[in-house]
Structure formats: structure tokens, C-alpha cells
Design goal:
The structure holds 2 protein chains of 2 kinds.
Chain A: E1 4-7, E2 10-14, E3 19-25, E4 30-38, E5 44-51, E6 56-59, E7 62-67, E8 72-77, E9 86-94, E10 102-104, E11 108-113
Parallel strand pairs in A: 2-11
Antiparallel strand pairs in A: 1-3, 3-8, 4-5, 4-9, 6-7, 7-8, 9-10, 9-11
Chain B: E1 5-7, E2 10-13, E3 19-24, E4 31-37, E5 44-50, E6 53-57, E7 65-68, E8 75-79, E9 88-95, E10 104-105, E11 109-113
Parallel strand pairs in B: 2-11
Antiparallel strand pairs in B: 1-3, 3-8, 4-5, 4-9, 5-6, 7-8, 9-10, 9-11
Classes of the chains: A mainly beta, B mainly beta.
């Protein structure tokens, strides 16, 4: 059974810092990995998707990397802003199935203070 | 198209009552998923539809839960004889069958069972 863990559970940083969020998964036979952002009481916004054959994806100030063999992914946020404050969720889609259910970590709560 | 929509956004009910939620996926997305998220946790998979066929159900989906997607477009999730433990955010997501299998989430329905 796939298990996804995110470290740290919470992070508080001053504006302008670069930061790294970590995600690990137990079964490396994944199809893809997605990073999401969730604001309090809201749904999920997809940030980046990395296919199993890819090593990284970039969007603006965000960069996500994937090391499938070691079961790890990182989300790098450059020059953090107060508007980045949210919960960040990592989710993996297992390979070997034609159905796309995602297994999520518990999330990292990020607070960026001015 | 404005994305995945869900109704209602909030539902408060008394224990023992039945509730029904609706999800309208992004048009032409064949795949539709339901997830449940409790406070402080990541979403957990409930069920998956490809067109009108329900192809996978989680063990979390007890016999009090039923989901339908009658015409392969919108979907409904019904909970019968609600219990306080059913209180959660119910999230719907959709993705296309072809191309990048990226899931897009709706805003969720927040259920509170008193």
C-alpha cells in the first residue's frame, strides 16, 4: 500500500526566503506525482505535475524535482511571498493501474510573514 | 469552461438525515473522482468513474455511501443515515483520458453533521 509523507508538517519563514518542501513515498513504481496548493476551507489548486520519466518541472518561482528510485520529491519555492501562505500537498498516482487515484500526504502548512 | 464545480458548498445536517452532493466536471473530461478530506489530513480516495462506469471504490465507501454518474457528465454522491464521523470536506476532481493525466479539483462541499 502506497504511503506518502511530507516534511515538515509546518514551516514559518520571513518574506523573501527560498524554501524546500519534502515529500517521500514508499512504492517507487509511480505513474506521476502532483503538487497542490490548498487555501483554508478551499479546494486544491494543481501547481506542478511530474511524470515518472521526468526529473523536474518548473513554473514561475516553483520548481519540483522527482527522484523515483529513492521515493522522494521536493518543491522549491524561490523568493517566498506572504501570498504563498497555504497548505502544500504532494500526491502520487501509482503505476500498474489504468485508474488514476491519487494518494496524498498530510501536507505542509506554510506561513510567510512580511 | 470555468473548471470543476460542486454544489452545495456547505451543508449542515442532523445525524440520521440523507444528503446528496453534486459535481460537474470540466467538460469532455471522462474521468471523475471523489475524495474525502478531514481536518488536518490530506484527501483520501473514495471512488472513480470513467464516463458512466464506476470502476473503483475505496473501502472507505461504506454501504451508506452511493455515487452515480448516469450520463457520463455530472456525478452525485449520496450519504444515507449520516453520522457525525461523516463530517468532512468532499472533493471532486476530473481529468481527461488522453494526454497528461492531471487532476483538477473543485472547491469542495463542506459537510457538518450535528
Amino acid at each position: 500500500k502506497q504511503e506518502v509523507t511530507q516534511i515538515p508538517a509546518a514551516l514559518s519563514v520571513p518574506e523573501g526566503e527560498n524554501l524546500v518542501l519534502n515529500c517521500s513515498f514508499t512504492d517507487s513504481a509511480i505513474y506521476n506525482l502532483q503538487w497542490f496548493r490548498q487555501d483554508p476551507g478551499k479546494g486544491l489548486t494543481s501547481l506542478l505535475l511530474i511524470q515518472s520519466s521526468q526529473r523536474e518541472q518548473t513554473s514561475g518561482r516553483l520548481n519540483a524535482s522527482l527522484d523515483k528510485s529513492s521515493g522522494r520529491s521536493t518543491l522549491y519555492i524561490a523568493a517566498s511571498q506572504p501570498g504563498d501562505s497555504a497548505t502544500y500537498l504532494c500526491a502520487v498516482r501509482d503505476g500498474g493501474t489504468s485508474y488514476g487515484k491519487l494518494t496524498f500526504g498530510q501536507g505542509t502548512i506554510l506561513t510567510v510573514h512580511p | 469552461d470555468t473548471g470543476v464545480s460542486q454544489n452545495p458548498r456547505h451543508k449542515i445536517t442532523k445525524r440520521g438525515q440523507n444528503v446528496t452532493f453534486r459535481c460537474d466536471p470540466i467538460s469532455e473530461h471522462n474521468r471523475l473522482y471523489w475524495y474525502r478530506q478531514t481536518l488536518g489530513q490530506g484527501p483520501e480516495f473514495l471512488t472513480y468513474f470513467q464516463n458512466e462506469a464506476q470502476l473503483e471504490k475505496s473501502r472507505l465507501l461504506s454501504d451508506r455511501f452511493s455515487a452515480e454518474r448516469p450520463k457520463g457528465s455530472f456525478s452525485t454522491l449520496e450519504i444515507q443515515r449520516t453520522e457525525q464521523g461523516d463530517s468532512a470536506m468532499y472533493l471532486c476532481a476530473s481529468s481527461p483520458v488522453t494526454g497528461v493525466d492531471e487532476q483538477f479539483f473543485g472547491p469542495g462541499t463542506r459537510l457538518t453533521v450535528l
